[in-house]
Each structure stands twice: as C-alpha cells, then as structure tokens.
Design a protein that fits this description.
GO terms for molecular function: chromatin DNA binding; transcription coactivator activity. By secondary structure, this protein is α+β, with helices and mostly antiparallel strands. It has a domain of about 130 residues: Roll (PH-domain like). The protein contains one helix and ten strands, in the order ββββββββββα. The radius of gyration is 16 Å and the shape is globular.
C-alpha cells in the first residue's frame, strides 16, 4: 500500500521509500540523492501572483511516463512532484563555470496536481550536485522522441488526438489514451 499526496502531485509513495509505479511504468534513470529541484513561474506574473517551490536534496526518477522528484526529507508543503514527459518543453543542460550541472525546462502543469491553475507553465531547474545531468538529459531526449513517435502512430491510426500533453488529471489519459505506453521502451530506439 502507498499513500497518495493529492495536494502537490499525483505520485503514490511506496512505504519502503520510492514511488509506486503506474501500470506498465518502468524506471529508466535514478539520480544520486543530492539533486535539487526548483519550480517557479515566469517573470510575466506580478510578484504577488508568482509561484515558487524548491527542494535542496532529493531523487529524480525518469520513467517511460513521467519525471518524478521525491525529496530526501519531505515537508507538509512538499512531499513529491511529477510531470508527464510530453508536458516538458525547451529542455537543456547548462554547465556553469562553478557549481554543478543543471537541467532546465519549461513544464505544463497538470490540472489538479497542486499547482495554482493560473500558471499554465512553470520553469523547472534540477541541479545534479553528484553528477548525472548529461545521462539524465540523454535518456530523457531519447524517451521523449520515442513517446512522440508513439503518439504520431496512434494519431495516424485514429486512436489519439492532440500532441500527447496531459492537461487533465495526470493519470496519462487525454491525448495519450490511445497510446499503448507499455510498448514505449528505449530498447527500440536507435542509438
């Protein structure tokens, strides 16, 4: 049994640590535990309406469905975070002169996931203090390409509409409803 944290994400947490996978979900990458996460609204919002959430130490899981971040020490305000793969755009690794490599992206939050509805997109930054940013980014880009291919095939066969972004409840429905996510594996990707 797990405990659901409906307030700030759709991640079912496993009793022994980690997360409870969705049906057919496979973990493709796990970060070292000192990875940071920062979510914030873009500068278009006035300061009073801005959104910001940060965690200094946690683990990132990349699965064939989503990115999951679990803090090493959760707080009542922040226990977990998840975003569907196809809700992530403009991702890149930045390598500063000093400090750890960062992976930055823009995310489209899922309705009901705990992020205020007025924020149609947020900036997400993960800092990989113990390494792994390039491995994560490479695996993510290959996976996203494979998911896009699966959505395109489903759309051609009349099984799906849209581009695969999930603006609903975060359970992989909507545009991905006609896509067999269990068949999305990295083995099938060209190197």
């Amino acid at each position: 049994k797990g405990r659901a944290n409906r307030k700030s994400s759709w991640v079912m947490l496993a009793e022994q640590g980690g997360y409870t996978p969705l049906p057919g979900e496979q973990t493709l990458y796990v970060s070292p535990p000192r990875t940071t996460l920062a979510l914030q609204s873009s500068n278009r919002h006035p300061p009073a309406q801005s959104y910001s959430q940060q965690c200094k130490s946690g683990v990132v899981y990349l699965t064939n469905r989503r990115i999951i971040y679990l803090p090493v020490s959760s707080t009542p305000d922040f226990q977990s975070f998840a975003v569907p793969i196809l809700n992530i755009k403009d991702s890149r690794v930045t390598a500063p002169w000093f400090g750890a490599n960062k992976w930055e992206s823009v995310i489209l939050p899922v309705s009901g996931g705990g992020i205020p509805a007025q924020h149609a997109e947020l900036e997400m930054t993960m800092e990989f203090k113990e390494g792994g940013a390039f491995d994560f980014a490479t695996t993510f880009e290959r996976l996203k390409e494979r998911l896009k291919q699966a959505v395109d095939v489903a759309r051609e066969n009349g099984l799906a509409t849209g581009d695969g972004t999930d603006l609903g409840g975060g359970e992989g429905g909507g545009a991905l409803a006609g896509v067999n996510l269990n068949s999305v594996h990295l083995d099938e990707l060209p190197a």
